[in-house]
Every structure is written in C-alpha cells, then in structure tokens.
Amino acid sequence: MATLTRPFEKIGGRESAGGSASPSLVTRMRGWLAAWLPAIPLLLLIATCLVAPVLVLIWESFTGMGESGLSLDLWFKVLGQRVNQSAISTSLVLAALCSTITLAIGAPLAWMISRMLRGSRAFWLGLLNVAANFGGIGLAFSYTATVGTVGMLTLIIQGLGFGYSAPREGSLPALLMAYEYANIPLFVLLTIPAMSILRDDWWEAAQVAAATRFTFWRRIGIPILTPFLAAGWLLIFTWTLGIYGIAYGLAGQSGATAVNLITLQIGTALQSDVLLGPGRAAILAVVLMIFATISLILYRVMLRRALKWL
Amino acid sequence: MAVSAVTAATAAPERRRQTGGPGRAARYLFFGAALFYLCVPMIAVLIYSFATRWTANVLPDGYTLEWWQATLSNPRIQSAFSTSIMLATLTAAIDIALVVPAAYWSRVRNARIRHVVEVTAALPFALPYIVIAFGLMQFSGMVAPQFQGTFLLLVAGHAAIAFPFVYWAVDGAMAAAGIERLSETAEACGASPFQAVRRVVIPNISAGIVSGGLLSFAASFGEFAMAQIIGRGMDTVPLWSAEMIRSYSDTAGSYNRLAVVTLLTFAVLFALSAVVVYWNRGQTVRLLPGAGATNPTEGDRR
C-alpha cells in the first residue's frame, strides 16, 4: 500500500537503512520504531496469546511434557488408543454431516433472501444474525427445552398421541440438530454476498437463449457459486469440529452414553489427569490444528477461484 | 470491479419478483418452516422461565414469576453477570485501544503491519477456542505461572480471540473513510499525528469502532471454553449456566433459573447485534473472511 512520506519528518525503515552510508544503530532503531511502534502492543498480544500458545502445544505434543527429547512416542500412544480414534472419527463424521446439511438448506435460503425486497431482506438478516449469535450453553439449554426428552415439541408430539421419544441429549442426532441452529444462519450470512455475483442479466440472457431454469442453474448458476459454497462448507466444517460449549452442555446431561468428540476429550483430559493428561490433550489439540490448517488452505484455494468472477 | 457486480444485483430485486421462482406456496412453506425453526426454541425457553413444572403435559402445569424474582435477586447470578460484563467490557476496550493505532499505522506508514495482522487474524477463526485456551494455559504455566487462573489472563485471552472482529470493522471503516487522504490533509494543515488521530481519524471511523467493539463484547460475553479452562473457579454467565445444565434436578428448579439466565444472555446478544445491524443498515456484518473483494465497501452504501 501507499506509504505516506511526510515532508517535515524523515521516516526510517527501508529507505534510510538502504542508503550508502550505513546509519548508526540508533538511527536504525529509531526508524524501526517509527515504522512499528503504534502496532507493537497489538502484536505483543497476538504473539503471547495466540502464536506462542499454538507453538507450545505443538512442542509439547512431541516432547511428551518435557520428559525426554523430541519423539513421536506420545503420538503413537495417543493415536493408538481406542477413545481417541473414535473421538477423531466421530468428530469428522459429525462435522461433515453438519456442514453438508447446512449447505443443503442454507444455500437455497441464502439465494432466496438475496433476491428479496429490501424490507423483508433486512428482517431475515436481523433474525439470522440473532440466531447465529446464539451458541454455547444457552443453545444447549434451548435445545433441551425445545426438542429434548422433556422439551416443548417432544411433549406436544407425545400429547398428540404419537409414541415418540426424542433422541438423547448427548447423541449424534441431538448434537446435529443443536449445531444446525447456529450453523445454518451463519452459512446464509456468509454466502449472501456471493449470491449477488450471479447477475440477473445472465438469467435474462439465458432465457433469451431459450434455457430453462434447470439449464440455467446447471450451466451457469451452480458452476459460478460452487467455489463460494465450497468455501462456506469448509468454514462450517472447521467451526463444527471445534465446537465445545454446545457439546459440553448437551453431552453432560447424558454422561457416559454421550458421543465422543475431540473437543470433549480435550476438556476431559484437562479436568481429570487419568489417561495421559495434558499430553493427550496437546496431541488432540494439534490434531484439530492440522484439520483446521488443511481446510484453511483449501478455503484459500476455493476463494481464489471464486473471486475470479469478480 | 467487485462493486459494480454487487450494486447491479442489489438494485435488481424489484425486477426479480416477476420471475416467480419455484411456486409461491412452496416458497411460503419454506420460509414458514425457517421462521418456525428460528423462533420455537426461543419461545420454549420463554415459557420455561415462567413454568412451575413442565415434564408431563404439552403446556406447563402452572405459571409463576418466582424464577425471575429468585434469579434476579440471587447474589451468585448477579456476580456472574457483573463478572461477565466487566470481562466483555475490558475485552472490547483493550481491543479497540490496541487495534485502532495498529490499523491506522498500517494504512498511513507501514503496510507490513497489515500482513502480520491479517495472517494472525485467521488464527482465532480457524482454531477452536478450546485449543487456544489450552495452549495459553500451558504457555502461561511455562513463563508466568503467577498469572494462571487470574482474571487478567482471561481478559488477555479474550482480547486475543476477539481482536479480528475489531480489526476488520475498524480497517473497513478506515478504507471507507479514505483515512490516508484525511490524515495527509490533517497533517498538511499542521496537525500533529496525535491530533490527527483524535480529531480526524477517530470521528470518521466511529461506526467501525462501535460495531467492532460490540462484536468483541458479544464474543467475550458468550465465550465458554476459554473461561472454563483459564478462569477455573471464576463465575461468568456461561460458566454458571454450564454448571446448572449439568446439575439438572427436577425439584430445584435449576432449569427454570437457567431459562431466565438464557433469556437474559440472549437479550444482551440480541441488543448488541441489533445495534450492529442498525449501524450497518441491512448489510450483512459477517462475510466470508478473507474475501475482501466481495465486500461492498462502506463508501458504496452511501
């Protein structure tokens, strides 16, 4: 970006440091400070509270809590355990299912909302924004109050005379339903801006060329939107993998019968030091990081493709 | 370039109506279902907060204001709310205080700040809070054990995970206001950098500061994983709620009180997001992170 040079103050950094007469250390320091000083507090916060913690976890996963040098021992031990294997696979299945359902419902919803009149669009955006902000324990509780074993809808269905029993609070279907409550609105909010890329003229042009609505979507609409939708899918997938509050709230109610997730395992490993304690939590945390990194990279690729149409 | 596509499409809905779509009835049904889906849980929680006993029949056996009174006068819940509000306020304040100078400097002086900040802003979005929280706990245990389990560390952690909200809002507002030119002009008129920031920059990006601050407040207020791991023994609203939801007992009315607290939390978040949406006039606040180009910039909204 344009670097502003002011007439009345010489700015340090590259320009002065690159000069033929090498400036003294003090001048160089001053130039560096002039370039970075206002950002230092923020960068310090980022370094100590985001970057260092991540590095520490990666380090710990290889050192096994500082016993002997670098080794993969802890990795083999932890990944060899049944609990952790099933936690990882359940988390992946749950996240994939969840984001696919989100995509299937959220994409048409986003499309329709993007083509609404201003007033009703604002209404829906407001409503979705509220729902997307709803999460954690509060969402877990409202799930329980609505479709839990003694929730309102469950009682209504039973009151109508159906022999229905709700899925247990900590089961996979229950978690799916609770997650979707926040995920679908989030997905819609994320993808609505992309929907406006599909221009109305294109649909008109397609109609002139005697295309049906189906052909339009198959040949133009879906191909253009796919990278955006895929990027949205990846984000929801990553976020779902990392959900802890809702799962903790719901799984806590059904104790040992609850599903086994990576995040829940991290929580348990931290609270009770049985199995391998913090070392196990570190490995599971690094596993989550690996998944997050992979989907972030894919996300960038998708986004680059998507933005081609702008 | 991005902008023309966006404005063309947003100007279109009037015309779009005639194209009809997949049948009016189907559409109404779809939106009706969505409305139902979004509203029913809130209604259920609302009824729960007034119910005496509600485990057998379609509607509660009776209604009472007891839970509201008991909850609002409960000292533990009061202290949980005041802790959470303080935590969230500090988080927002720290984030604003740190982000505004950094974002400003990255625009007027040193673009390299932007690269660093943007790459690290992806961290709290990609990594689960529980991972960051656990890492922070381990790291603080290594370098500064005296901070472990303190309110201060929790504030720092929340400030770290919420800073991207403020950064994006503030940076967007700076782009929209054309802050480079403004500060250049201010300086040409003889303002010191400090004066330029205080009298020119901040007034022009106040909308961004407000919405960024509110978003970070909301993120901190509802955050559970980090509060549980770092703030062990503290009482924030999510921590209290987690304890209640786990210790379900039918007689103690813990769920009814939880319903009251859930509604209060919800009211806070609702008010915040209403302000943010109002401030941004019907535009979506969240966009695909990193897709800056799809984002109609503030300037185009008029």
Structure description:
The complex is a heterodimer of chains A (about 300) and B (about 300). Chain A has about 300 residues and is an all-alpha fold. Chain A contains 14 helices and no strands. In chain A, helix 5 packs parallel to helix 9, helix 6 runs antiparallel to helix 9 and helix 13 packs antiparallel against helix 14. Chain B is mainly α. The longest helix of chain B has about 35 residues. The two termini of chain B are about 15 Å apart. The N terminus and C terminus of chain B are likely disordered. The interface between A and B is large, with 118 and 120 residues.
Descriptive key words:
heterodimer, A: 310 residues, mainly alpha, 14 helices, globular, disordered N terminus, B: 302 residues, 74% helix, 0% strand
- What distance lies between the first and last C-alpha atoms of chain B, to the nearest angstrom? 17 Å
Specify Rg of chain B, calculated over alpha carbons. 23 Å
User: H/E order of the elements of chain B?
Assistant: HHHHHHHHHHHHHHHH
Helix content of chain A: over 70%
Describe the secondary-structure layout.
The complex is a heterodimer of chains A (310) and B (302).
Chain A: H1 14-17, H2 25-36, H3 40-63, H4 73-80, H5 82-114, H6 118-133, H7 136-147, H8 152-159, H9 172-195, H10 200-208, H11 213-242, H12 245-254, H13 262-271, H14 278-306
Chain B: H1 2-10, H2 13-16, H3 24-50, H4 66-73, H5 75-108, H6 111-121, H7 123-126, H8 129-143, H9 151-177, H10 179-188, H11 193-204, H12 206-221, H13 225-230, H14 237-246, H15 254-279, H16 298-301
What's the short version?
The complex is a heterodimer of chains A (310) and B (302). Chain A is mostly helical and 310 residues long.
